[in-house]
Design the sequence.
C-alpha cells in the first residue's frame, strides 16, 4: 500500500475504523498513541506493543533533539519499538513555555534524520487565546511554516501531518483547515485543544472539531493533539478524528490520578479498583497508596494505558456494529459537560448525514429525545417528507398510534383488523421517533429495527409532531382519522394537526380511545 | 461477630456495602455468587477466589444430593473453596421441570449435613405465573414449608434465607415479604424473577424488588435469585439487594455469548474484545471462534466472570462515594428497557429518601429531568417547602436566575451587587434543579456541590416550577421581582407564578433581561 494512504474498514457517524499505512506498517484506527519519553519511559516500550496492543507511539522530537544533539540514531533502533513511531515537533512546548530554541527547518530535518514514520511540522499553536488578532497570526504563521517545511522535505516515506490552528475562533479554524487541506499533507491534525479539554469545554471542542471536519475532505485521516482521556474518545471519534496522542496516562499517574472511561479518580478516593486489568487485579488501592512514588506512578500509568486501550477497542467495536451513537450517549452520561456536548451534536446532524450511514447489523436503541437527531432516525423523517408520496388514489388517512411490536402491521394481523395496501384508505402509524410510518414502509430500515424506551415521553412527542404536520401538509387526504389515546400527550397536539388538515375544507376526525385502539379502528373501517 | 449478622460500611439509595458474617468468614456485599457444578466446574474453584476475588459461590444442593446420594462430604472439603459456600434448594428446578424428587425436610437435612454456610429452604417458586390463585398457592405453600423447615433446623451456625414469592403480583409479594420477615431468617431472598429478567421486564422487576423492600425491615440482607447479568446489577443493588447468584456466566458462555456491563454480544458479532481481562488480552475473537467448544466455553465463562467481578467493584465504589444513582443512570443508557426502569424509580422516590442518604464526598451530577428525583435533590425541594420559612421581616423577594458558578452569591460579589442577609429584601436564586435557593442557603449541601448540565432543559424547568409556586404559596412576600431572561422557558411560566403571587393583592413584577441580569438587578435594588 502507498505510504500515507488510509483504507476504510467501517464507519459510523463521522467515525471510522481504518488502516493508515506508514513505512513501518499500518496503524489501525482509531488509535491512541502513548507519548513516550525515550530517556525515561514509565512503561516498557515492549509491553506497550506486545502486551497492551498499542500499534503506535509518539515521541517528542523537540525534546529528543535537545538531549540527543547531533546523535541521530533512528527512532526504531533507539526505542526498540516494533510498531509505528510518530513524532511531535515541539508545538506543545511553545504553548507551555512561549517559545522553543529550534527552527521549523531544524526540527523537520531532525525528524527525517531519526526516520520518523509520522511527523509534523513545527506550527504555532493558538491555544486557548481569545485575542483574535494574535490567534490569526498563529494561523498565518503556521501556514507560512507549512509551505517552508513542505519545500524542504526530502523524504517521501514519511507521513506528514498538516496542523490546523485557530483555537476557539471558528472562522480562523475554517480558514486554517481549508488552507492545510489544499497542501500536500497525507494527514491533518487539530492543534492545541488541550486547554479547552482541561476545562471540560467539550461543547466548544465539538465546535472546533466539526468546524475542521466541514472544511477538509472527509476522507482525510485527522489527528487530535493531546486528547488522552478515554472518557471523551468516543465523542472525538464520532466527530471524525482518527488518531490521538496522549501523555495523559503518565501525567495523571504522576498526579496520583486513576483514569476510567467515565471519569478520573484520585487514588486517595478509591476503595477498590473497578477494573480487571493486569495491574488492578493484583493490588488494592491501599497497597498502591503505600508504594513508593516511582512504583506507584508505574502502576497507575500502566492501568491508565490499559483503560485507554480498552476504550479504543470499545469504540472500534461500536463503529463496526453501527452503534457509536449509543456509546457516545453512554459516555455523555459520565459527566454533565460531556452530556451538554452530546446534546450539541444535533446542531451538526446534517454533516453526520452527509457522510452516510452503513447498513447496521444490530437494531437501534431509542432512549430519549436527544436520539431523534441520530442520523438514521433523522434521515428517515427527512426522506419521508422529501421523497415519499402517498399511494395513488388513496383519499382517506387513518393515523394509528405506533404499537409496541414490530413490524407494526403485526398488530393489525393479531387483532383481526383487515387492511389492504391498495385501498382508498391509507393506514399509517404515527409516533416517536418516526413521525409517520405508512403501513407499506413498516419493515424498511430502521423502522422495524428500532427499540424505543418510551413512546410517550413528552419532549420526544413535541419534537416528532412537526414531522406529522409536514406529512399532512405534503400529502393531500380528503379525510384524516386521528386515533388517539385519551391520556396521550398527542391528544394535546391534535388541534395543531387539525389546523393543518382543515385547510381548504379537508376533514379531520379525532377518534379517542382508552388503552386499546382496535375497537375504534374497526368502527372507522366499517363506517367509512 | 454473630453468624448471620450484617455490618454496614456504606450506603447509597437502598444499596449498601456491608459484611455478612457466616461460619466460614464474611462475605463482602454487594456480592455475586457464581453457581458452580461441583462435578464439572467450568472455571477452577481456586481461580474464582484467589485470582478473581470472589468471596462466595453457590452450589445447587438438590442436584448435588441427587448425584452424591448419601455421601455427605462437607462442601468445603469437596470443593476446596476457601470462601463462603451457599446452597440453593432446587426451587429453580421446580420452576423449570415442575417438580423435584425431594421433600423440604430432606433438602434441609442435606444442606446441614454438607455444612453449607448459607442455605435456603425448598420453596415453591411462583415464576412468571399470571394466574393469581396458583400464585397465591405458591406463596402459602412456601410459608408452610418455611415453618416446617424452621422447626426441623438443628444447626445454628448456618445463615438461612427466607424465600419471598408472589411473582408479579404486588399484594402477594407484599404479603409473602411480611410473613417471611416475621420468621427467624437472618436473610431474605426474592425468588424466581428469572423469567421477568429474561424478558428484559426491568420495570416489572423494580416493582417486585421495591414491593419486597417496602415490606421487610430495610436493614435485613436480601438475596436476588438468578440475577447474573452485570448490566442490571447496579439497578438491583440500588433497589436494596445485597447478594446475587448466577449461573449466567456459564449459560451465556455455553451459548457463545460474551457479557459486558452494557449488554450481551454474540461471539460471532465481535470484531475485537472490548475488555482487558486476563482472557481477552490473550486472544482475538477470531481465534476464540476457532477454539473447540470446551475451550471456547471456558474462555467465555472466565471472561464473563471477570466482567461480573468488575461490575461488583464498580458498584461498590459507587456506593462508597455516593454516586450509585449516576452509575444506575449510565447502565440505564445501555438498553431501552433499563432506561424505562430507571425512569420508573421516581415513583419510589419516597422509599429512597426514607432510607436516608450519606454525606457525599464528591459532587452530584445533574444531567436531565430524571435526576430531579434523585433523593438528595428531591429532599432539598421537599425540605425547602416543609421546613424553611423566609427570614423574619423581609417583605420583598427578588428571584434571580441561578448563575453558573458556585456558590451562587459569588455571582453577586463578582458583579458588585450589594446584598445583606438581614435586609427587608430577600434575594433568592431560582432554577433547575432546586427550585428556589434562598441566598443564605446557597452553600448548604447539595446546592453548591451539584454540577448541572443544562439549566434550560424544558422538561427540567417544567418539573421544577411547582417548587417555585409552592415556595410563593407558603412564603408571604408583599412584592416579588421575577428576573427572567427573554429567551428562557421560565418566561413562559411566569404567568403561573403571577397567579399565585397576586392572590390577596400581593404584587408580582416581571423584570426581563437579555443575557446578563446584573444591570436590571441593580436597578431593582436602587428603586425599591
Sequence:
Amino acid at each position: 500500500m502507498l505510504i500515507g494512504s488510509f483504507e476504510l474498514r467501517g464507519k459510523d457517524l463521522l467515525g471510522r475504523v481504518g488502516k493508515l499505512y506508514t513505512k513501518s506498517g499500518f496503524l489501525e484506527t482509531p488509535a491512541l498513541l502513548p507519548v513516550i519519553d525515550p530517556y525515561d519511559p514509565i512503561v516498557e516500550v515492549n509491553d506497550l506493543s506486545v502486551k497492551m496492543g498499542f500499534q503506535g507511539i509518539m515521541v517528542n522530537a523537540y525534546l529528543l533533539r535537545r538531549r540527543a544533539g547531533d546523535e541521530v540514531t533512528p527512532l526504531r533502533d533507539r526505542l526498540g519499538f516494533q510498531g509505528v513511531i510518530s513524532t511531535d515537533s515541539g508545538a506543545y512546548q511553545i504553548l507551555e513555555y512561549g517559545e522553543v530554541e529550534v527552527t521549523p527547518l531544524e526540527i523537520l530535518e531532525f525528524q527525517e534524520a531519526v526516520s520518523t514514520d509520522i511527523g509534523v511540522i513545527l506550527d504555532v499553536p493558538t491555544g486557548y487565546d481569545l485575542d483574535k488578532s494574535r490567534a490569526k497570526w498563529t494561523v498565518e504563521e503556521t501556514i507560512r511554516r507549512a509551505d517552508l517545511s513542505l519545500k524542504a522535505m526530502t523524504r517521501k516515506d514519511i507521513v506528514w501531518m498538516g496542523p490546523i490552528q485557530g483555537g476557539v475562533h471558528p472562522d480562523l479554524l475554517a480558514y486554517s483547515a481549508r488552507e492545510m487541506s489544499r497542501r500536500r499533507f497525507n494527514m491533518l491534525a487539530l492543534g492545541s485543544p488541550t486547554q479547552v479539554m482541561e476545562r471540560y469545554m467539550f461543547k466548544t471542542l465539538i465546535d472546533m472539531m466539526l468546524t475542521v471536519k466541514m472544511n477538509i475532505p472527509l476522507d482525510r485521516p485527522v489527528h487530535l493533539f493531546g486528547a488522552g482521556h478515554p472518557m471523551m474518545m468516543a465523542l472525538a471519534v464520532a466527530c471524525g478524528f482518527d488518531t490521538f496522542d496522549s501523555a495523559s496516562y503518565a501525567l495523571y499517574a504522576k498526579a496520583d490520578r486513576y483514569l476510567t472511561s467515565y471519569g478520573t479518580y484520585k487514588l486517595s478516593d478509591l476503595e477498590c479498583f473497578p477494573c480487571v486489568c493486569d495491574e488492578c487485579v493484583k493490588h488494592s488501592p491501599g497497597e498502591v497508596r503505600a508504594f513508593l512514588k516511582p512504583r506507584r506512578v508505574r502502576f497507575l500509568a500502566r492501568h491508565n494505558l490499559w483503560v485507554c486501550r480498552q476504550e479504543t477497542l470499545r469504540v472500534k467495536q461500536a463503529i463496526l456494529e453501527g452503534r457509536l451513537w449509543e456509546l457516545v450517549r453512554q459516555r455523555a452520561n459520565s459527566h454533565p459537560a460531556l452530556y451538554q456536548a452530546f446534546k450539541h451534536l444535533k446542531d451538526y446532524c446534517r454533516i453526520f448525514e452527509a457522510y452516510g450511514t452503513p447498513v447496521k447489523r444490530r437494531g437501534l436503541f431509542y432512549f430519549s429525545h436527544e436520539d431523534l437527531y441520530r442520523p438514521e432516525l433523522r434521515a428517515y423523517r427527512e426522506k419521508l417528507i422529501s421523497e415519499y408520496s402517498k399511494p395513488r388514489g388513496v383519499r382517506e388517512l387513518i393515523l394509528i398510534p405506533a404499537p409496541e411490536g414490530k413490524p407494526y402491521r403485526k398488530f393489525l394481523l393479531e387483532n383481526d383488523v383487515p387492511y389492504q395496501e391498495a385501498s382508498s384508505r391509507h393506514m399509517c402509524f404515527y409516533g416517536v421517533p418516526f413521525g409517520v410510518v405508512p403501513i407499506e414502509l413498516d419493515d424498511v430500515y430502521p423502522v422495524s429495527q428500532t427499540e424505543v424506551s418510551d413512546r410517550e415521553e413528552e419532549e420526544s412527542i413535541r419534537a416528532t409532531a412537526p414531522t406529522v404536520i409536514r406529512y399532512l401538509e405534503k400529502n393531500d387526504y380528503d379525510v384524516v382519522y386521528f386515533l388517539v389515546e385519551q391520556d396521550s400527550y398527542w391528544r394535546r397536539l391534535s388541534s395543531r394537526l387539525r389546523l393543518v388538515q382543515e385547510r381548504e375544507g379537508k376533514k379531520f376526525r379525532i377518534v379517542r380511545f382508552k388503552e386499546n385502539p382496535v375497537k375504534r379502528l374497526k368502527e372507522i373501517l366499517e363506517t367509512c
